[in-house]
Structure formats: C-alpha cells, structure tokens
Amino acid sequence: MDKHYLTPLFLPETIAVFAGKTDDPDSQIPQARALINALTAQRFSGNLVFLDIHTTGTLADLAQTRADLAIIALPPAEAIAALEVAGRIKCKAALVVGSGTTADMAGDMHRVARRHGMHLLGPNSLGFQRPRAGLNASVVGPLTAAGPLALVSQSGALTASILDWASQNAVGFSTVVSLGPNTSVDIAQVLDFLASDAQTHSIVVYMEGISSARRFMSALRAAANAKPVVVLKAGRKQAGNEAAQTHSGTIVGSDDVFDAALRRAGAVRVRSFVELFSAAKCLASRYRPVGKRLAIVTNGGGPGVLAADWVSEISLELGKLAPDTIASLKPLLPALASLNDLIDLSEEASAEHYRAAIDAAGRDNTVDGILVVHSPKSGIDAADVARAMADLQPRLGKPLLCCWMGDASVGEARTVLATANIPSFRTPEAAVGAFGNIASFYQNQQLLQQTPPPLSTLAQPDIEGARLLIENVLTERRKILTEMESKALLSAFHIPVTQTILARSANEAMMIATQLGYPVALKIDSPDISHKSDVNGVALNVLNAVGVRDIYNTMIQAVTKAQPGARINGVTIQKMARNKRGREICIGLVTDDPFGPVIAFGAGGTMIELIDDRAMELPPLNQFLARRLIDRSRVAETLGEWRGASAVDMDALEHVLLRVSEMVCELPQLREMDINPIIVDESGAVAVDARIVIDSAPATARNYAHLAILPYPARYEQIWPLRGGGEYTIRPIHPDDAQMLQDLVQNLSPESRYFRFVSSLKELPPSMLSRLTLIDYDREMALVAIHRTRKTDADGEIVETERIVGVSRYITNPDKASCEFSLVVADDFNGKGLGSRLMLSIMEEARDKGLAEIEGLVLANNPGMLRLMKGLGYSIKPFPEDPDFKLVTHTL
C-alpha cells in the first residue's frame, strides 16, 4: 500500500509486449518496429515477454503469463483486443504507443482499461523511458542518459528535441514521459508519481492544456512541495475577452491566470524553449532555491554591466559583498580590482584570483548565488579558471553559474564546466535569467506554504444575507447587479462603501443630494450598461441643487440616445469622497476556464484598460498573499509616501482583499466583479463604485468545489473532553505544525514508531515532514489532536504550550471511492479515548467527501490497534500480499 499506484507502469518487473509478429517485421506497424528496437537495444532490468494476440494460443496459455505492464503497438482495432487480453492476464497498467487513434476509439480503450482496473498511458502516446532500469518503452529515440531530472511532455516532437539537446549537453533523466492527446493517465497523475519517485530530484514539464484544474493544481502543488518544477506552456492566448462585462474581465487573459496558478502551486514558468533548456541545466545541477541576490564576478566591466542590467530588468537583486568580506578579500586581488557593486577582478585576474573571490562570496550571507563572467584575455588560460570553478563548486553551498564569453578559445573551458555539472551559458543575460528561475522557485515556495481558511479572522460577514440578495436577482432573471445591489453585497462582507441612494426623478435627486451634502456624484443606474462613463453616465463634483436637476435630465437623455434599448432604473446620488491625495485602486474578479475564480488587483479609474496594471492571485487569500499581490502591481510604487502625500493605510487595503477573498469562497455564483475605484489614503479605503456579474452556482459548488485550491477546512475543528480531565482540540493539520509533528515522532517509543512507520526511523526526514504537513485537502486529510498546557516561567508569567498528541490521516485511493488511513497517538495519551475520537473524526470527514470505504494495514503483532479497529466496527482480514499485516476495512 505504500507503493504509488503508477508503480506497475513506470517500475514494472515484467512487461508483456504486444507488437504483432516479431518474426515478420514487414507485417508490423512502424511504431512496433521502432518500439522493439528501443526495448531491446539495451538490457532491461526486468523481464520482457513478447505476445501475439493472433498466434499465442488459448486464454489458458495466456493466463500463465504474469505481467505488471502491457505495451501495445498495434493498429487501433487490434490494440483494443490486446487491451482485453492484457486485462485478462491481470496487467495493472498498459501503454498504447502510436498515433492517429480517434477520440471515439480512445474512449473505447479507456472503457476497456477501466473495466479491468488498468492504468492506461495512451493511446497516441510516444511512450516513456526509465534509464536506470534500462527501459526504453518509447519511439522518441535512443535511451537517454540516467540523471536526476524528469521530463513530462504533451508533445512528442518536443520530447524528441529535448532528448537530442540533452545528449549534447550531458543532461540525464530519471524519467521521460510523452503523453500525447487522448491519454487516460494524464499530466496530473504523472506529476503525482514523480513527486514520490526517489530517482527524480527535479521536474521539467511541457504542456498545452489541462482537463481538470483542481486535479492539476493538487498534483503540481504536491510535486513542487517535494522538488523543483519548471513549466513551459504553449498556446498563450490574447489577453482580453470581448464578451466580458467588467473591466477586469476585459483585461485579464487566461495566460495571466495560468501564471498566477503556477506561482501559487510553487512551480516556475518559463516562456521559451531556450529558457526551458537553461532551467533544465540548473535543475540537473541540483541547485535549490535560496534567494534572489546574485553576485557577479567578472574580469571585464562591459559583460559584467550587461549582466547587472539584466539583474535589474527581471527584478532580481545585485548581491554586494559585506564590508568585512571586502576588507579581507581586497589584499588577495589585483590592484585594479573593484568590489563595490560588481566583483570586477580586472583584466589581470588569474584562476587564483577567481578562486579567492568566489570563495569569499560563497561565505558571505549577503549573497544567494554567484555568476562568473569570463572574457578571453591574453596570457590567461580560460580552462584553468574553469577548473578552479570545478574545484570550488562541491563545497560552495550556493548556485554557481558561469558565462564564458567567446567561442573558439573557450571550448575546453566549457567542457570542464559541463563535466563538473556547472551550468554554463554563452551570454550574461541567459545566465542571469537561469538564476532568475531558481530565485522564482524560492519565492513561489513561500506562496505554496500558504493555506488560508475561507473566512479570515475579521468580523463574521452576513453570508446568508448576501446569498439571499443574489437569489433575488437571479429570480428576476438578471445576472448584473445594480450599483446599489453591488454595494449592498460588499457591505454584507464589511467592505467600506460610499453611501449611495437611487433617485428616480430630478426632484428626488435634488432632495437626496441636499441631504447627503455637496459636492455629490451622479451615476446612471442600468443593468445593461457596463461602463457608465462611455455613455456620459457619470458626473462628478456637482455643487448645488440646480446642477443636480440639470445633470439628471441631461444624463437620462444622453444615455437613452446612446443606448436606446437599455433599461434605466434612475440615477444614483453619492457624496464625493474627500480623499484629496487618495490613490485610485481597482480590485476585480474574473472566472477562468479551467481555474475558476481569480482575484485581480491594480490601478483603478477610467483609464484602467489603457494602464493595464493587473496582478493576480487564486483565492483563498491570507494577509501574506494579499501583501504579495499588492507588491506585484505597478500601482504599489505609489502607495508609500509619494509627492507630498502620506503613505496609504496598507492594513485597510489588505482588509478589502481579504474580504473579497471571503466573497469569492462563500459565493460560488460570482462570475465577474469590479470594485473601481477604491479610494485609499492614510485614513483607510472606501469603495466608490462596484459592478458585479453573477450566475447560478454549479451543482458541484458544495464544499468550495468551484475553487482550484481548496481552503484550509476550519469547519472540522472541534473541542473534546479528555478522559481523566482536561480537553483537547481536533483540527486539520497545516504547514506550521511541522515542528510539533516532528516532536511527536521523536518522543514515541521505538515500538510505537515501528507500529506506525514499519521502520526504525527516529525522526521524520525534512522531505517527508513537509509532505505530511503541507497536504492537499481535496484528496487527503490529516487531523491532529492538540493538547495545551499552562506553566509559570521563571518570571512568574503564565506560558501556554501546545503539542500534537495524536494524528489520524487518510489518502484517497486512485478509484476516488475509497481511502487508506493511518493513526498514531502519543504514548503518554494512550487509553484516554484519543484513538477512537481521531478515527471517528477522520471517518466522518471521509464520509463528508463522498468516499464509500476506508481501509488500512495493521501489523498482525499490534493487538492494541486491532482491538481499537474491532471496537469501531472494522472488518479484519488477512492481507494476501504480506502475512505480517491485517487488512482492516469499514464501509462509510
């Protein structure tokens, strides 16, 4: 049960090959001949069995064959028959290699595979490679060299190109998978396998599209949490949508949303084939994220300045040596060396000078990575400098990248660097860009660690009132809320709005304006007009009653003439916001296919499309994510002290973003939204105008299914009495629990640790600890029991401490209908009812998810656990694959 369900596909012990008559190559399809050559060109560590569905014999004969994986290279009609045979001989996985299979025939193959419980890669796949096992089950070329990098591609042609490049650049792979269209095993499932694959240290993905955003995000987050992931996506669409009814919907394109999704998943996106290769070089060198301060060591000012310019261009920081480092390094360098910004060693720099500078930068805490730029100089052997890099790199502990300028004279140096697995580039810009990918991964990992709940810790919003308002509008068969309704919805979530009153006549408008106090703003109120200013439907700073009367009449006439068919409710009156030095901000919402709702932030006002300032984030948000979202916008530069204006109240702006996030999570009917402008200054933020588009919620909207990232499920938090006195809290796990979980494991008795992990480990490795605490609540759940104690410290202060005293967990099985559980309780809390309560709680959560059965493996020599399972009504059976275990199951 600890093996990944795709292990029979990618790590098979025996393979049954269906490729036609092996003694008659002319009768085989071209892919079959290529496949057999690929499979037999080197020794596979397992067993290969070649079968022919026409001549193998009876089903009884076939039944003697036992295989994990069936590889099929036959015409589509025969491939379906071969799949049937593979199912009958109990293959757990199948690969259908080839091209040209129609969507209908692919559907037939998927149904056959499902019926037999096989995981199907293909049809129309070009196969996969596992170099360490000597397995080339592909038709994309010779078996690549073994290495720590995995490649997953939705394009066969691009897979072949990358492998060809890799063979010339000494880059090896743990796994290469070419998916192709119509495959049943999709990109999310492959990522899920690679996340737990010990041979894979980093992952490169080329993709063209996804079918399920939730599944893709879940797998990508799990993979990026375990190892670096770099994605190249094709098909970048033109931003903007003519059918959009808000500014945000007009501006935000699906490619922007994909960027936001990758950031939140902790992965890095590259935008060109060249960048993908650069990223692959860095990942193959096993560099890990550290920060974004890049020190540049050079022997020529010009190339160094070019590199520094590109550092600034892509929002990195130039790593500058600390004063004490400069003082100790200066005597070791040529007299003309400069260390103030760039580490310019001058044209006299030798290999020893480079060695001293890089060694110093490696020990300096102000530097996160080092780029060495070397230009050919008379009397200096470029290869000697490269050898100095190769000697230093193993003990450096920071990314080291090189750019050897020139060509003919530096060939040997590049060979030295390649042999030492040091990424080398031909231009300073490419090298800086490659470091930028490493730095982006570091920054995106911080976003990945955030698991906000759907509701913030702010005052409880009126969710039922908001839903009632939306239902009333939908009952009237409308989808666009009026300004009054939009502001009422914002108010239900405690977002400050300007007081707005609807006037249906000029006299009403004068009376309302007089009561509100001048100056006032007048705005046309119509569900059919998206942008009021486009039809002269906005008037600002109206100073008296006569002006209100005249503008009301003129506005009604002008709008009626500009849009004769528009329904006009009247004109809204609101007091002008008196924020003289306030900044205009827009916070918006768009609904993307397939990622769902996305929150947009940027500059507001009437020139919003022209300014095109948009930063985006997937909900839910917390304060950290809200601040990062603000920082990514261009308008962020104006929010501090600016041209005599005080800095704005950032807490108020974050407050609005958190409230918008709550709206998005709790109201699946929202489709588009503009809060534009929001006036923000040192005293707070207020929404001046708002436009909201809604639609009926999909039937699957239960439990936040409309979101690509599931929020922290705070609703499962409960307080229970402890047998013998006191109480404890059961709640879902989150990343901040890592140290408490480690403490629980370290303090378990050796017997308890063995019963839980079936090993003698004394503590959880960092990768495992990370995987157990940062989980995807959509496909797994871990509930922790928290016990709090109060003690008085040396100063007489009462200090409250928390510890995890128990964990129950389930992971959904590939059938999506059942799950596997685990349970551990601290030794000093045994016999206090924690185990029963944790199991009942995890079962209730699994039932709430719609799962039908929960199962687990218990060591046969663990009588306490078996008694607990029996008491909870589990059925206990022998586990056929291992007599040391019992299989316990319970229907949910």
Q: How does this model look, in words?
A:
By secondary structure, the chain is α/β, with parallel strands linked by helices. The protein has an eight-stranded mixed beta sheet, sandwiched between helices. A seven-stranded mixed beta sheet has the order 7-6-9-8-10-11-12, with helices on both faces. Strands 13, 14, 15, 16, 17 and 18 form a six-stranded parallel beta sheet that branches. The chain starts with 6 loop residues before the first helix and ends with a strand.
The shape is globular
Q: For the residues shown, what is the average pLDDT? A: 88
- The appropriate CATH architecture of the domain at 714-891 is 3-Layer(aba) Sandwich
Give me the number of helical elements: 29
Q: Tell me the name of the CATH class of the domain at 714-891.
A: Alpha Beta
Low-confidence segments, given as residue ranges, are 238-244, 247-252
* Radius of gyration (Å): 32 Å
CATH superfamily of the domain at 714-891: Gcn5-related N-acetyltransferase (GNAT)
Structural class, please?
A: alpha/beta
What fold name stands as the CATH topology of the domain at 714-891?
Answer: Aminopeptidase
- Quote the distance from N terminus to C terminus: 20 Å
Number of strands: 36
β-strand amount:
15-25%
Main attributes of the structure:
Rossmann fold; 892 residues; alpha/beta; eight-stranded mixed β-sheet; Dna Ligase, domain 1; seven-stranded mixed β-sheet
Q: Briefly, what is this?
A:
The chain is an alpha/beta fold.
What are the SSEs and their pairings?
Elements: H1 7-10, E1 14-18, H2 30-40, E2 47-51, H3 59-63, E3 69-72, H4 76-88, E4 93-97, H5 103-115, E5 119-125, E6 127-130, E7 135-138, E8 146-153, H6 156-168, E9 173-178, H7 187-195, E10 202-207, H8 213-226, E11 229-233, H9 247-251, H10 254-265, E12 268-270, H11 273-284, E13 293-298, H12 301-313, E14 317-318, H13 323-329, E15 343-344, H14 351-363, E16 369-374, H15 382-392, E17 400-404, H16 411-419, E18 424-425, H17 428-448, H18 463-475, H19 483-492, E19 500-503, H20 506-516, E20 520-525, E21 538-542, H21 545-562, E22 570-575, E23 583-592, E24 596-603, H22 608-611, E25 615-617, H23 623-631, H24 650-666, E26 670-681, E27 684-687, E28 690-694, E29 718-721, E30 727-732, H25 738-746, H26 750-757, H27 766-773, E31 780-792, E32 798-812, E33 818-825, H28 834-848, E34 853-859, H29 863-871, E35 875-878, E36 885-891
Parallel strand pairs: 1-2, 1-3, 3-4, 4-5, 8-9, 8-10, 10-11, 11-12, 13-14, 13-15, 13-16, 16-17, 17-18, 33-34
Antiparallel strand pairs: 6-7, 6-9, 19-22, 20-21, 20-22, 23-24, 23-26, 24-25, 26-27, 26-28, 29-30, 30-31, 31-32, 32-33, 34-36, 35-36
Helix pairs in contact: 4-5, 7-8, 8-10, 10-17, 11-17, 12-17, 14-15, 15-16, 18-19, 20-21, 23-24
